[in-house]
Design a protein that fits this description.
By secondary structure, this protein is mainly β. The chain is 13% helix and 51% strand.
Length: 413
């Protein structure tokens, strides 16, 4: 056995050495050195509080990720990715050009000595801006529609004001601060909590991690009221200029939907607009009024447009004359024991003035000339003729009428 071990011992030693060398060659061939590019390693910014002390905020213009080349044995480097590396930039070391150097280290310290790292670009470029703080009202935005017999009343958020802090350029873009709630099909008041959103002029949400809100959510309360339909009435006041009159008052709509608590709605039968003045006008008036101004504060107009359009047509007055005969005049207030005779009707002319569309249609039978005899005693009396009261029509009489009163002749009976 001993002879077997030591027989050709030198050759055996050479064989072992050759095998080791061969193994080393194979290892070097299969585990050769390679270079790999690792892209998009996120860069963490450190010590950013130094900018807070200066009331400034920053934005990363370039370098929020970094690319590197790593060199090492294939068995070490081959399976590495961006997740295996940590990149950082110390903002407190920022240069006067607002640039910060980026450093990358492997998360596994055991391979730190087995690889070398080269940077594609290891500079982070920052832009600095003044930090501002402003207060904004919180608006409630309702989405959907309540039940068809109901309307949305007051909607408010608590808190109703929030403080927003961030870069001046970002804060200046804020147009609205809103909290949204879905009211589709609602019949009762709603209370819930919603997230606060900040919007720009286009209604788009502003998302900026440098912008902070004093409160991220708000309590929302929305009142849902029943609807009632009521009539609208417009009454003008005042008198147009001399020689002019109101021919027509036209307005739309003539009915409107209002909403409120049931006891409030019960107290409202109609909406009256009574402050439209035409005093001194010699031309037509066109105007609009908001019906919300003519209902109680605890009620609302339950439609998109709460305005009504009003047109008051004002026209120049015209006139015409008619001649009266005794047969045209009637008596009122007669005493059954007396007789009444008209002694003269010479040149009894009546001038009728008013709007053309009214005056042109009037005849003597329409104006109903009448003498009141209730205060007349026996004898002759100069009396006044009275006429039918027609809106917008005035009368002027030229001439005198005399009525004689005497005891009724017994033979007449």
């Amino acid at each position: 056995m001993k002879n077997f071990i030591f027989k050709n011992f030198g050759y055996k030693i050479l064989a072992i050495i050759f095998a080791i060398l061969l193994w080393l060659v194979v290892i070097n061939i299969t585990d050769y050195t390679i270079t790999v590019k690792i892209e998009d390693i996120p860069v963490e910014q450190l010590n950013t509080d130094v900018l807070d002390e200066l009331d400034q905020v920053y934005d990363v213009v370039k370098g929020d990720t970094v690319d590197i080349y790593i060199k090492g044995r294939r068995s070490v480097v081959g399976n590495l990715s961006s997740k295996n590396f940590y990149a950082y930039a110390d903002v407190s070391q920022m240069s006067i050009t607002n640039s910060v150097q980026i450093y990358v280290t492997p998360r596994n310290k055991n391979i730190e000595d087995e690889i070398s790292i080269e940077y594609v670009d290891n500079i982070m470029q920052l832009s600095l801006e003044d930090k501002v703080s402003e207060q904004f009202p919180v608006k409630v935005v309702t989405k959907g529609d309540p039940d068809s017999d109901y309307a949305v009343g007051e909607a408010y958020a608590m808190p109703n004001i929030v403080t927003i802090e961030g870069p001046k350029s970002a804060v200046d873009k804020i147009t609205d601060v809103v909290v949204s709630i879905n009211i589709n099909g609602a019949k009762d008041n709603i209370s819930t909590v919603g997230d606060i959103e900040i919007l720009d002029a286009y209604g788009e949400q502003i998302k900026n991690d440098k912008v902070t809100i004093s409160q991220s959510s708000a309590d929302i309360n929305v009142n849902i009221y029943p609807i009632k339909t009521v009539g609208v009435f417009v009454n003008v006041k005042g008198t147009p200029a001399d020689g002019y009159g109101i021919s027509e008052v036209v307005y739309q709509p003539q009915t409107v939907d209002i909403a409120g608590e049931e006891e409030v709605l019960e107290s409202i039968e109609s909406i009256e607009v009574n402050d439209i003045s035409v005093s001194g006008l010699n031309e037509s008036l066109q105007t609009t009024v908001n019906l919300a101004d003519y209902i109680p504060e605890n009620a609302i107009v339950a439609q998109a447009n709460s305005e009504i359009a009003i047109t008051v047509d004002i026209e120049k007055l015209t006139s015409k004359t008619v001649n009266l005969t005794s047969s045209d005049i009637s008596f009122t207030g007669k005493d059954s024991g007396y007789e009444y005779d008209i002694e003269t009707t010479d040149n009894i002319i009546v001038e009728i003035s008013g709007l053309e569309n009214i005056i042109s249609e009037l005849e003597v039978k329409d104006i109903k000339p009448t003498v009141d005899c209730s205060e007349l005693n026996i004898g002759s009396h100069t009396v006044e003729i009275k006429f039918e009261d027609i809106e917008g029509v005035k009368y002027s009489v030229t001439g005198v009428i005399t009525v004689t009163v005497h005891i009724k002749d017994s033979e007449t009976d």
